[in-house]
Amino acid sequence: MNGETLIAAFAAYDFDIHFDFLAKQLASDWLIAFCIPVIPLALHWADMPKVYEHLDKATLCVHRVIDIGPDDPRYSSAVAVRVCAAGSWPSLVWSCRMPRERRQSVADLMAAMDMTWDKAAESVDHIASISVWLRESDDRTMGAHYQSANTFIYCIRCGYILMASDARVSDAEIMQGLPSIDEIQTLTPTFPDGCGNFSHSAHLFLNAFLSCAAVCDQLGRHAEALAYATAGLLPDFAKAGTTLNDTRILLQTAQARALARLGRVSNAGLVFEAAAEEAHRHGFWLYEAFCLRDLKIFVLDEMGHGSHASRRVGAALRLLNGPAEMLTPLLDGLDAAELIALPPPDVSYRIVYDTGEQGPAEDDDSEMRAELEALGVMALHKRAVSQGVNVMTELKDAMASGAPKAALVELLLALPHPQ
Fold it and tell me: For 107-126, what is the mean pLDDT?
């Protein structure tokens, strides 16, 4: 129950014994590749001393993996650990809102593995070329691979931006380098007969939509964050969707934060409430506390319900092991001890959200632009045709321009939109 067996197993983990054993039995040491023991410790218990202890132990193990060279028979197992750790650890650390020094330690580990913004594509492509389970970037085969190099590249590049104190990449370069929604949907391996995709349906911390939404949130690009999060919440596996509760909680939170910052406060409140309820129901109590914290800061304080909101956060924090002084740095300015000491929330207290709320017109335009810019050229072309744009004149001119994607976006924005 609640990961106790897994936690005990990692407490007894010895790299010199268990790495080789797991590589032989399971093709690689997935225990450290995805930092699996940290997940229940963090998301259910928020037992931060043990979280950091296990994270440090896993980090030392990955550093030892880095030293395994191509002449070593364990090399294929080692490169699997490298790519999986670089792809998943940043999302784990980001989702737990760990302090800056913890993020930077992950960035340093990624740099040691040549998994930075600039080097990730080359490194992942090399690993894909020698791994049967990882589909290469230029391969479009469906139903034959466990993961795709593209998904790892997206997640690793975004992860490095989220972790590094100074990634030495401009905001413009980052936004230009993010994949479109169409690219994510097209390049995610999908299995037939409704089996879904492993990239987004099997792993909590390896979701390209979530990674892109998180980066956009960090850069203040809220319309784009909303577009990625909304696309990620589609349950359609053929469109790289997911039904994982934990991933959906994070995507809902990203969606709600973007809505709030775009002025759609009541809509944001409804999404935060849904995410918090789902987090509580499935035992992701740390995520519940974060949902309620964001609900307080972005919505309820503004609506005049700040005291009630604080009590709700305090009730969620009381479910966690803490301690309070180690939870405070995760709460973006709130004091865990003060919140924990508050009385329980009044169960009869009711908040009414304006379900007919509309955001400012300029926000609607920015959201539409973000949605369009997330599409590829051919998807934009198809959309323009479906909306009646003249193929022989306007579309022909747009496609012949020096920047067809930008021209198509402006063409579609200029069309009348239903109110």
Answer: 98
